[in-house]
Amino acid sequence: MTDFLGPPARAVRVTLQPALVLGIATVLGLAMFCWPLFAHPQPAAAAHTADAPFVFMATLPVLILVVLAELSRGGIDAKALALLGVLSAVNAGLRPLGAGTGGIELVFFLLVLAGRVFGPGFGFVLGSTSLFTSALLTAGVGPWLPFQMLASSLIGLGAGLLPRKPRGKAEVAMLVAYGVFAAYFFGLLMSLWSWPFLAGTSTQLGFVPGAPLLDNLHRFAAFTILTSTLGWDTGRAITNAVAIVLLGPAVLAVLRRAARRAAFDAPVRFDQP
């Protein structure tokens, strides 16, 4: 019980400058998803493959900046990096178990729990590294990968920003609600980036360049409900909720015990011989 009720850990302590970097990354990330609503893209689906490398180049520097900024300030050490590698590998191993069938994906529940325990900076980095590692493992590298990395990073970041006080059953209930939200949020963003190119421009669900914003939002809402929300996203939400209810308390206790033993917040002192 002591482990479960332990104080919050900060494997990546986000000070002012890294916080600004994360804030800018969040705004730019959301802009990357929402740009079809404010631009006139080419209708060909293949056209979007030219944008994906730019998103990749926008994602990886953010991760590097967070790590380097914290390394230069002593905010992340070898223990935190090792933990990041272990959790990324675990997530990469969990993802193929469901293979996305019917929305069954186990990668997100651990991301939510880790972001909750280790903070928003760690959650942001873990979101990208988990999806990148699992994509290499499952041969899922493609133009969609950088968008998945951005969306997962935002989920991990949000988990670290949840209120710290709830504990016990109240905390599990809060994490279940966030896990459900994260499932639909991820599906919404992934539908948004692909919508102008998959739906085309000649259907009632398609993107109409230059149309009023509300008209395109109505079309997009119909598109995502029919193609994602009622199927994949709902399956993902159920998977997150069940996994957090069944495994959440035990996983939280293990992660908090690891955080306590790693003593991320303890200052490093060198005794004189």
From TrEMBL:
<feature type="transmembrane region" description="Helical">
    <location>
        <begin position="50"/>
        <end position="69"/>
    </location>
</feature>
<feature type="transmembrane region" description="Helical">
    <location>
        <begin position="237"/>
        <end position="255"/>
    </location>
</feature>
<keyword id="KW-0812">Transmembrane</keyword>
<protein>
    <submittedName>
        <fullName>Energy-coupling factor transport system substrate-specific component</fullName>
    </submittedName>
</protein>
<feature type="transmembrane region" description="Helical">
    <location>
        <begin position="106"/>
        <end position="132"/>
    </location>
</feature>
<keyword id="KW-1133">Transmembrane helix</keyword>
<dbReference type="InterPro" id="IPR017196">
    <property type="entry name" value="ECF_substrate-spec_UCP037395"/>
</dbReference>
<feature type="transmembrane region" description="Helical">
    <location>
        <begin position="20"/>
        <end position="38"/>
    </location>
</feature>
<keyword id="KW-0472">Membrane</keyword>
<feature type="transmembrane region" description="Helical">
    <location>
        <begin position="175"/>
        <end position="195"/>
    </location>
</feature>
<feature type="transmembrane region" description="Helical">
    <location>
        <begin position="144"/>
        <end position="163"/>
    </location>
</feature>
